[in-house]
Amino acid sequence: MTHIDAGAELDPVHPASGPVTRARGLTATQVAERVARGEVNDVPVRSSRSTVDIIRANVFTRFNAIIGVLWLITLAAAPIQDSLFGFVILANTGIGIIQELRAKKTLDSLAVIGEARPTVRRDGVATEVSTSAIVLADVIEIGPGDKIVVDGECVETDGLEIDESLLTGEADPVVKQPGDQVMSGSFVVAGGGAFTATKVGREAYAAQLAEEASRFTLVHSELRSGISTILKYVTWMMIPTAIGLIISQLVVKENDLKDSVARTAGGIVPMVPEGLVLLTSVAFAIGVIRLGRKQCLVQELPAIEGLARVDTVCLDKTGTLTEGGVDVTEVRSLDGHDGTYVRKVLGALGASDPRPNASLQAVIDAYPDSGDWGCEQALPFSSARKYSGASFTEGNGESSTWLLGAPDVLLPAEDPALAETERLNEDGQRVLLLARAVKDLDDPRVQEGARPAALVVLEQRLRPDAADTLRYFDEQNVQAKVLSGDNAVSVGAVAGKLGLTGNVMDARRLPDERDEMAKALDASTVFGRVSPQQKRDMVGALQSNGHTVAMTGDGVNDVLALKDADIGVSMGSGSEATRAVAQIVLLNNSFATLPSVVAEGRRVIGNITRVATLFLVKTVYSVLLALLVVVSRVEYPFLPRHVTLLGTLTIGVPAFFLALAPNKERAQPHFVRRVMRYAIPGGAVAGLATFATYLIAREHYTGREALDAETSAATLTLFLISLWVLAIIARPYTWWRIGLVAAMGAGFLIVLVVPWLQEVFALKLVGTTIPWSAVGIAVVAAATLELVWKWVGRRDALRGNAVTARR
C-alpha cells in the first residue's frame, strides 16, 4: 500500500484548527470544532417527500380549487344536501394525506436501515458513521463496492480503481494514486485505500445530483403523467362547457336563482374526476406500505409501476440465485505441484488482500496460515480482469508471482487443464485456477504464459427460494436471463438445478452490434463470462428490442447495468454503490421478495386503469349532457345531490375497493389511449341514453313538479347504466365483486323506497310509464355498451398480439 506521510501535516482547510494526522484521522476535538462551524455533510438523504409537501400536493390542486369555489357558492345559494359533494372532497383529501404520511413513515424507517454507513478513521480507530456525520477533513476508508459519498483527495491507495462512469460517462475504471481527487457519486471497483474529505454537504455538487436522482418521488411515471394529461384535457373541455351551462341556466331559462345555481353546479361538479388522483396516490401509498412490511425499500415510487410492466428480468447468479458465500471443497494439484506448497501459496494469497471477495474469503477460511511469506506487491480482483494476484518473498528467500482466477481467462484454449475444469463446471461447481506467472505483476499482460499449479473447487450454495421465484416469473410470462461473470457451463448447471431451461452462451462470443446482440439475447437464457460493461450493453440491447428490463444484483460489477435498466433491484447486503443506484432494495436479501414487488406493481397499475375508466366515463357523459342541455336550451336534469349519490354508489365506494383488489395482469403501455378507448364510447352511450329519457319525460310530465319527475327518471336511467359500467369493470367476478355491485344497487333502491331519503335526494318516480321507459332505455344502452366494449377489447388484443409477434 502506498500512502502520503502526513504525520504532522496541517489541516489544509483550517490551519488554525491544529494539525490533522491524516493516517490517524481527526480527533474528537477537531470533529466537534467542524460540527460547530457547520462543516458537516448535511445534505439530507430522504426517501420521501416532506410532510408539508404531502399536504400541499393533496390540498392545493386545480380541481380542489374549482370544486371549492362551487361548494362555497352552493352552500350560500342551495340546500345543504346539494353541498354534500364538498364534504366528499374534504374526506378524499384527508384520506390521501393520511395514506401518504403512512407511506412516508414506512419509507423513512426503511431508509435508515438501508442507509450507507462509511468507515471513518478518528483518533486512529476506524468506525462506521452515518453519511450525514462526516465532517470536513475526515479520513474515510474505502474498498470494493463502496460508494464515494463526498468529494476528497486520496491519502492511501492499494491497487485502488474507481469507476466514475455515472458522472463522466467514461466506462473504464480510473487507477488512483495518493494526491488524486475522488468525486462523490463514483464507486470503487477494485483495491482499496483512504481519502480525506475536501468538500462536504452542498459544496459537493455530485452529491447533490446523486441525492436528487435517488430521492423518493411521486412524479415522472407513465401512470401519473397520463392522469395529468387526462386532467389537462378535462380542463380544456370543462371551461367552455361550464360557461355555456352557466349562461344557459341563469339567462336563457330565467329560472329561480337558487335552483339555477344548484343545477349549474350539478352540471360542472361531475365533470371533475376528483377521486382519480386520490385513488392513484392511495394505491401507490398502500403499495409502499405493503412492500415495507416485507422489508422492501422503494427508493423511487414509480419503480412499483415499472415492475408491473417488466417482461424480462436479468439476474446476477452470485447473491441472487446463489447465496453470497462459497466453500472450498477440493484443491487438485496440476503438473506435479506439491499439495503442501500449493496450500501455502493459497494461504499467502488470502493474506495479501485486506478486502477479499467471497471466493478468496473461502480460500482464507480453508487455508488461514500463510507461513513466513512476505507480500511485496498485490493486484486486487477485478470483474473486468477475472483474476487477482500477488508477488511474494518466500521463506527461503526466493521470489514468486501467483495469479488466482478464471481458468479460461488465465489459460490458452488448448490447455488440458480446461477439460477437467469443464467437467467440474458441468456439475455446477465453481473452479478457480492457481497459476504461477512468468511476468511481473504490474505487466498488463501478466496472465500470458502463466503455468497452472492447481484447481480450487468451490461449492456454491443455492438460495432455497430461487426455484420458486423463477417458476413464478415463468407463470407470469416474464422471461429470466442469467448474466454472470462465472464460467458459462457452471452457471448453466446452477440454473438447470433451479429449473431454468434454455440455451447457455459464453458472453465473449456475443456480437458487438446492438441488433445482433438483441437477437442472441432472445435466443439464449444463461450467459457466462459477462463483463460489467457487457451487462450494461446487454440491458440496452434488450431495451432496444422493446423489452422492459429489470436487473437484479448485489456486486459492484452490476452497478452500470442496474443504473441503465428500467428497474434496478439491489440486495440489502450488496455494495453501497448498488444500493445507491437501485430503485428497489431488498433489505432482507431475499430474492423471493421480488414476486411480491411485481405483484404489487401489477395490482396498482391494473386497478388504477380499471377505476380510471369509471371516473372518465362520468366525465364524458357529464360534458356531453351539459353540451346537449346548452344546445337544447333546457334545464340541466340533475342537482348536485343527484350527482353525489350517483358518484358515491357507482364510482366512489366501489372504486376504492377495486383499486386495492388483487390483480395479476401485466401492465400495458399507452395508459391514456387505452383508458379513453373505453371511457369515450361508454360516456357517450350513457349521456345520450340519459338525455333521451329526460326529453321523453319532459314530453310526458306537466305541472309544477314536472321537473322533479323528469330528473328522477333521468337519474334512474343514468344510475342503471353506470351500475352496468361498474359490473363490466368489476369482471372477472368473485363473490365479493358480485356483492359489491349488488350492494350499490341495493343502496339506490333504498333511496327510492324510503320516504325521507326520497325527500333528501329529491328523487320520486311518478307513474309507471316513464320509469319503465327509463329502465328499457337503460337496458338497450347497457347492451350497446357491451357490444362496443367487446369490439374495443378485441382490437386491443389484436394490437397486443401484433406487438408481441414483432418482438
Automatic annotation (TrEMBL):
It is found in: Cell membrane. Keywords: Hydrolase, Membrane, Translocase, Transmembrane, Transmembrane helix. The keyword Transmembrane applies. It is a multi-pass membrane protein. InterPro entries: ATPase_P-typ_cyto_dom_N, ATPase_P-typ_P_site, ATPase_P-typ_TM_dom_sf, ATPase_P-typ_transduc_dom_A_sf, ATPase_P-type_domA, HAD-like_sf, HAD_sf, P_typ_ATPase. Residues 119-212 form the P-type ATPase A domain. GO terms for molecular function: ATP binding; ATP hydrolysis activity. GO terms for cellular component: plasma membrane. The chain crosses the membrane at residues 59-78, 84-101, 233-252, 272-291, 611-631, 643-663, 675-697, 709-729, 736-757, 769-789. PANTHER family: CALCIUM-TRANSPORTING ATPASE. This is HAD family hydrolase. The lineage of its organism: Bacteria, Bacillati, Actinomycetota, Actinomycetes, Kitasatosporales.
